[in-house]
Amino acid sequence: MALFEVTEAAEAAGEMQYYDNIMDTIGDTPLVRLNSVVSDLPCTILAKVEFFNPGGSVKDRIGPAIIEDAEQRGLLRHGGTIVEATSGNTGVGLAIAAAARGYRCIFVMPDKMSQEKIQLLRAFGARVVVTPTAVEPEDPRSYYSVARRLVEETPNAVLANQYHNPVNPQAHFETTGPEIWRQTAGQITHFVAGMGTGGTISGTGRYLKNQNPHVQVIGVDPVGSILYELHRSGRVVKAESYKTEGIGEDFLPSTTDLSVIDTIVQVDDRESLLMTRRLVREEGIFCGASSGSAVQGAIKYARKHLLGPEDVMVVILPDSGSRYLSKVFNDDWMRENGFLERAWIDFRAVDIQAAKGEDRLITASPTDLMSDVVSAMKTYNISQLPVVDGEGRLVGIVREIDLLKHMLLSGHRHEPNETIASIVDRGVTVVQPNTPLETLMGIFSHHRAVIVVSQDKVQGIITHIDMLDFLATRMGSDEA
Fold first, then answer.
1. Which residue is catalytic, options 48, 59, 117, 209?
2. What mean pLDDT comes out for the span 440-455?
3. What is the CATH number of domain 26-46+193-336?
4. Can you give the pTM of this predicted structure?
């Protein structure tokens, strides 16, 4: 790196700190802990936020490496042209390096990609060729085939070939893997990444397993892609269409090393896109749709495998949400594609709370007697209570079913002064009063209740039946 180390001596001497060129700013992206969207999980989930790279994505890491390798092998000469089949992000990574080194670029993209990506590549002076999505890889109209043809037709041109170029995973072995290992002080137990070319997960996963063979490497694949079934059974199935960009494939890239990957989790478009919107609204992380896929996959895995407080999971967030404003962050597009119901728009947790018409919130304390809590549940006809401390801060939740199981526990002597402290569930899901209805719908696919909290104080509880009542009322008023 050309950046001078910032020290007191350097500051005192008035020395400048700067990079020699934009490529020197690639890498060392931060890890950010996820909170709201994983509030019910006891493990630590850290997001590796790759849109901090200068080109806004994880693919910035492979662009310069691919070009340098082509130069060293004599495949790319001064004034040459770089051609690539890309969903957009690799094109930007290549375009940055090409601009710094004086090369031209031609990028071939399938037509399902966002206009923002096409315009971004053209801003770098690249030529962009758009091809149909719904064709087989061997079809002469596919973006792979068109890219190969353009290389043959263009003098002094080279195909970057991210799907079969070993430089792709090697770049992650040399940069992404060591960064994560260093940033987690070697405490990482699980690594999660979406799968496209497979370079990120293969290179990073291989490095992490070299450091600790027990690190679990988890791939995330969209429903419609072939990689999940190929890894699970070895069978090649026919690919189907899906909306999430940048991950999933209809063939197996040679840059994907399935032997490095322990598990692949499937996610569908709906849950991926809704999680993307949650990450922005609840975590303040303005990321793209494949980031939502990766986080959703990580949560599914963590729940299924019961990850605990000792587990540290790192999830790659590949790019920024600025490239998807016309899609995942466009309510009209989301509704037109069946991912967002009209009834969800503009309603929030506070609206559901208000619709319940409750005068006061019924809570319990960890020191309350079990008999008193049972009596309260019977009096108010409720099956669960938020548990708070003396200052109204959330401790957890106590449920009717947990009380029943405890009462029936064999070999346990029940005393009249027994409190609920031992059966309080502290893994309760927490939302803010302004949490959107669409977010709550995603949460309620896995949970039966959430606690509404504002400034550390419990404001209310929303259950499955509360949601059903609210939606039924809204549908009735809409029809009227």
1. 59
2. 82
3. 3.40.50.1100
4. 0.78
